[in-house]
Amino acid sequence: MRKSEPGSASTPWRNPASALSPRPANGVGERLIVALLFGAGALSIVTTVGIVAVLLSQSLGFFAKVSPVEFLAGTRWSPDLVPRSFGILPLVNGTLLVAAGAALIALPVGLATAVYLSEFASIRTKRIVKPAIEILAGIPTVVYGYFAVIVVTPVLRSFFPWVGVFNAASAAIVVGVMILPMVSSLSEDALSAVPGSLREAAYGVGATRFEVATRIVVPAGLPGIGASFVLAISRAIAETIVVTLAAGATPGMTLDLLESVQTMTAYIVQVSLGDAPSGSFEYRTLFAVGLLLFLITLALNLLSQRMATRFRESFQ
Amino acid sequence: MTPAAPGGGRFAPRLKARRRAGVRFRWLCRLAAAFGVASLVVLLASILVDGLPALSFEFLASYPSRFPERAGIRSAILGSAWMLALVAAMSFPLGVGAALYLEEYAPRNRFTSLLKTNIANLASVPSIVYGIVGLAVFVRFLALERSLLAGAATLSLLVLPIVNIAAREAIRAVPDSLREAAYALGATRWQTIRHHVLPAAMPGILSGTILGLSRAGGETAPLLIIGALTFIAFDPISPMDPFTALPIQIFNWTTDPHGEFHALAAGAIVVLLGVLLMMNAAAILIRNRYER
Question: What's the mean pLDDT when you consider all of chain B?
């Protein structure tokens, strides 16, 4: 191979068999361009460092006054009313209640949709169902929020007249519909990745289509399905607008879906709508709650990636 | 066919029962698939029923107002248009530049794979976290206040990973033979990129960018957090102006407890969905037209 460019040994070779390599760049201009492109790439690191630095530095002031134990284990969240109390568990409870309700809808329905699309549906039905689900995935959250307030809550209240204007159930149902496309399309990818030979082997020993789907394909695709489940739950935990509009602003330890709750994200919105002055204690609570939210979703996303990688490797 | 019993009667195919279970299961799955489609139909129908009557020329051309019959989305439309233009101006060069670096220049080492993993993780950071970071960095620290620029910078952070990932896919899809042909004629790496790789990858890059922008156009949470929920009854004319945007206006009108503004919220949703739909259609069209 022709040594043509400083550092060419470490530049990516797309085709190692080829002896072709670019003419060396000798102008200053081209070096400058490469430096600029590198800068654009490095910006992503700056962003990550920036996110972590902002969340940590701003919440330091918060944790100077409220111990992390009190923050993480306290069961009363009352940032404005005296006696003030900063136990985040009521907000975490609200978040998990809505996410669990949403998961209750989205996980089974999404998986069943995926099984239908990958194992049973004709090409014609696929042509209707798949785009419809893709459209659902592209609808902005504020539209889902409107739908929760204007359609779902009144319907709920006509069945259960004692339900308040703000309730966790309405938010959970709508967030469930919102994350449904994520579950169904990622799970379908996982099911389609299961090799056809596995299905054929099962048919060969006399299994019916139902048995192939439930005992061969779904179990084989399980890590990939799990990855989609975890990602969808992470998305439900991070959801902001629907829960702010529909679930209300009542931090509490209730497990009743028909009551109003406040999620971590809804609290963040509430504070920032209130125009807290920079450096005030209230302003700092934003970042403490944001930091916890960031860590929870990061952990779930990493878990999901790991499951997806393991799944991909299992068929190689 | 008579089921033979080679196992001396222990082998029972029970085909009828198994088939019945299969039929039931298939119906269950079909019902699940129908649930998604039905949700979409109900969602769109309820919005169209409430929103279409609210649409009028006055609605599009009026500023927000305390009186529902006089309120409109003029400043929200202008704000969203400004926002999308600024986000495009920031995220397109940065996202595509990073993609070119990663696909064409980056050596295969630890740092490069760290960059790639990092971008994948940034793509899944909750939008509300971008909002509070934007509030701390752009609004307060850089003192951009609640300007279009602060909002666009925040949304650009959110859209960048999406643009970058789409651009990288498009660049990777350009066949090596194209690059090698340019090298054989004595082109430098940048000349090859500029004249061959980029033009070939452009449809994919553009459609990915438009999809990223349509995501930005519907984002509400980050803009709420940086404090865009204000009463704007004038046209924004510079990036430093305070602003409102369509999702913010919809949020605002949906929170109205008396319900007088709900029809207006639906009207604004029809406009927003119309715009996003056109953007997505354009993205699909570009991809289908130029790719293969």
Answer: 90
Low-confidence ranges of chain B (pLDDT < 50): 1, 5
Helix (H, G, I), strand (E, B) or coil at A300: helix
* Assigned domain for A53 exists: no
Q: For testing the chain B interface, which of A48, A57, A118, A146 should be mutated: the one with the most B CBs within 10 Å? A: A146
A234 and B190: CB-CB below 8 Å? no
Does residue A11 lie in a domain region? no
| Domain-embedded: residue A72 | no
pLDDT per residue over A274-310, tens digit each? 777 777 888 899 999 999 999 999 999 999 999 998 8
The amino acid occupying position A269 is: V
Record: contact A145-B251, CB cut-off 8 A:
yes
Domain assignment of residue A62, yes or no: no
What's the CA gap between A30 and B193, in Å, rounded?
Answer: 11
Domain count, chain A: 1
pLDDT at A311: 87
- Residue A2: pLDDT above 50? no
Which structural domain, as residue segments, surrounds residue A303?
85-314
**Angstrom distance (rounded) from CA B211 to CA B200:** 19
Q: Measured between CB atoms, does B178 come within 8 Å of chain A?
A: no
Domain holding A125: CATH number?
1.10.3720.10
CA dihedral for B248, B251, B255, B261, sign (positive or negative): positive
Q: Predicted ipTM?
A: 0.91
- A84 pLDDT band, cuts 50/70/90, is confident
User: In chain B, what are the domains?
Assistant: 58-290 (1.10.3720.10)
Per the DSSP assignment, residues forming a β-bridge with A78 are A85
Q: Residue A115's closest CA among A210, A223, A231, A203? A: A210
